[in-house]
Amino acid sequence: MAANFWTSTHYQQLMHPEDVDVVQQLDRDRGITLDDFKLVKMHISNYITKMAQLVKVRQRVVATAITYMRRVYTRKSLTEFDPRLVALTSLYLAAKAEENPEDIRYRFDIKDILEMEMKILEALNYYLVVFHPYRSLTQFLQDAGMMDLMQFTWGIVNDTYKMDLILIHPPHLIALACIYIASVSKDKDSVAWFEELRVDMNVVKNISMEILDFYDSMKNNIEERVNVIFGKLPSRS
Amino acid sequence: MSDLDSLITKKVADRYLKREVLGEGTYGVVYKAIDTQTNQTVAIKKIRLGKQKEGVNFTALREIKLLKELKDPNIIALIDAFPHKGNLHLVFEFMESDLEAVIRDRNIVLSPADTKSYLQMTLKALAFCHKKWVLHRDMKPNNLLLAADGQLKLGDFGLARIFGSPDRRFTHQVFARWYRAPELLFGTKQYGPAVDVWGAACVFAELLLRRPFLQGSSDIDQLGKIFAAFGTPKPAQWPDMVYLPDYVEYQYVPAPPLRTLFPMASDDALDLLSKMFAYDPKARISAQQALEHRYFTSPPAATNPASLPRPSHKGDNNSKVPESNPNEGPTVLSPPRKMRRVMPNRNDGGEENVHNAEKLDDHVSGSRLTTGRSSSRTDTIPMSIDFSVFGSRPPPRPTINRQFINEESCSGSLMMVEDL
């Protein structure tokens, strides 16, 4: 699939971190900082994951929904685009776009979603194809003979969706970073295998550092901070 | 062809000058418009919001998703999309006609070079899709659109989907029946680009014969027609056949020489045709390999697209109606306008099941054209998928759909590794 990725709109649309980390003016007016912005997006990602468990969709749909949501907020403000509605609608749209056959229509209160769906499509510029690290993860672990790390690494990949990595890096590099973290923390000797890959290890290590930094920052009391931020946003009925 | 009085000049979303309505699409009205930014003529599909309030139509969403990825001279271009008054509008390049109109037009003489040109463009489009891991799943002359400059462009990606995950299971209810590969008719859930190649082979044959090649009146009959043309496959020819879900044994008939079916075709054409019609999907030639076949390098050279014949009345109602031949069973009529074509079984995503009752599939149209046809064969048919034998509108088939849905999903609740 790699050859496919390089010609995809996903690849064409990868962004520089500094373009992702932009708080919209409307949100700044409400006192939202960059840290707040990141935290809200993490919170919405968790919310999407929780909702997805209720409606039972595949992990791929969850990952695509979160990617849609994150793409939306590179262009739209939290103030105008109600995060919870964006979360639900992204999940709804992702389920359709990923050919998720479960008829999730009936599990949502559809009325609010319909209007938002069109807005999200427009904000996404109608680009709906998303690649995820999961597939390359499986292939890499098989190739490296480290299938025993699958579950652990899979969890790390899931956690990367709490960050904006999917908007910035090719998915297979995210997968490699997760494998790198997993192999180091489980004392697996993966050096020789990584050396054989023709990838820029500096990039992989940088992504790994970002993930580790993220885990580090999660030690603070998140719930409270999120509540404070949501207090700054317009209230919905 | 259009009533000049009915021309409306209305600006849509500040960019498009709305002109006459071209037809009723599967998911809404299609009208002609002028793109004021480029002065280009375009076709705008206004996507009706479904009665079931499912939001943006699933089929439309599929088309948007895939066409945004597929930019190629032989694939219809999605120029723009925009919401307007609560409806989503898709802007496509305007296409004058389609291959079905050419094949049906008795005033057109298709030279071997013309046929070669049409097939080459068809295969180029397919090869591109397959390279991008997209299966079209609805190959038929009606979906091979013709631009004003003679270029053929593959259109209608409403049934298309991305493949490439190994072991993913898809619905076999794709393609209009006459263009459906034998593995699909035997109910396979795991298939690949070879199904599109079979469909392209049917189009190739149709170009040579100037009528649909394998006009089955039911799924069972379709296989019968295929086997009558190419001989009943032996297990040695297609080892996996007997393991397919809906496999039934057919009486052995030998293959007549292909030459007798296509008396006018060149040896190279027949050789390519037979490779595209290979029974075993694994042995079937790929679109890319087909393009490299000597048929395309041997004379005559393919006609330059600009010099290809044009149907006299483009998109005119009458030009699209094939003569029905009572001896060959019911003929599924293509709808008078391309956009209002009959969509077989557009339900593999589970999105349209509920309002599918109003949507005709080809089984239904077949049965409708033959009301009063004997239904005595009902009992002998081992599969329940075929509704034409009932001689009336089918039930919405919730059970069948549900089955497809589950199969296509692997398992909704398990977040499986293989799933991704």
Descriptive notes:
The complex is a heterodimer of chains A (237) and B (420). Chain A contains 15 helices and no strands. Chain A has 237 residues and is an all-alpha fold. Chain A folds into two domains: 16-130, Cyclin-like (Cyclin A, domain 1); 133-217, Cyclin A, domain 1 (Orthogonal Bundle). Chain A starts with a helix and ends in a 5-residue tail after the last helix. With 420 residues, chain B is an alpha+beta fold. Chain B has three domains: 16-93, Phosphorylase Kinase, domain 1 (2-Layer Sandwich), CATH 3.30.200.20; 97-307, Transferase(Phosphotransferase), domain 1, CATH 1.10.510.10; 331-409, no CATH class. In chain B, 45% of the residues are buried. The termini of chain B are far apart. In chain B, the strands form three sheets. In chain B, strands 1-2-3-4-6-5 form a six-stranded antiparallel beta sheet, covered by helices on one side. In chain B, a hairpin with a 2-residue loop joins strand 2 and strand 3. Chain B: It holds the Pfam family Pkinase.
**CATH architecture group name of the largest domain in chain B:** Orthogonal Bundle
Biggest sheet character of chain A:
none
| Uncertain stretches of chain B | 1-9, 314-420
What's the number of helices of chain B? 11
Q: How do the strands of the widest beta sheet of chain B line up side by side?
A: 1-2-3-4-6-5
Q: Can you tell me the overall shape of chain A?
A: globular
CATH class placement of the largest domain in chain B? Mainly Alpha
Count the helices of chain A. How many? Answer: 15
Q: Give the integer mean of the pLDDT values of chain B.
A: 75
Amount of beta strand of chain B: 5-15%
Shape of chain B: globular
Task: Work out the largest interface and the residue count of each chain.
Answer: A-B, 39 and 44 residues
Instruction: From the 3D structure, determine the CATH topology of the largest domain in chain B.
Output: Transferase(Phosphotransferase), domain 1
